[in-house]
Amino acid sequence: MTFTFKKIDASNYKKAIFLQVNENQDNYVAPNWYSILEANYESEEKHPFAIYEDKEIVGFLMYSYYSADEDYPRDSWWLERYMIGKDFQGKGYGKKALKQFLECFFKEYEGKDILTSAVPENHVAITLYEQAGFKRTGEYVDKEVVLEFPFSRFKI
To answer: For the residues 137-151, what does the mean pLDDT come to?
Structure first.
């Protein structure tokens, strides 16, 4: 199973917007339409992508760069959004697409670490990130648990 990551553009934004998580996951991830708006209208460096398995969109991710500020004290890259559509969950897509994304990220941004965060009650996401190689930092951002994957721990 191989995934491709295609930037959100005029050809795929509608399908990405309509991709939904299960109802019990709604409080854990922002809607894709909101992420796409953020990427287009906020000043931070944000990169939204559709996750494809063959020719079908199965998920969405957005990674972003933030300069140090009062919310987080150092310049850092973040996997800010990550979701697999409800119709594609339970098939191993989340684990495999995340691993493949990390490979792409570390090839593009060699030497850079990446962080992510999750609502503390979102045990499924935290477990997924930890299995992929992220480690909890002990920090919180906006009441979310911060996890980090240092480039030094990445193995191709």
So the answer is: 94
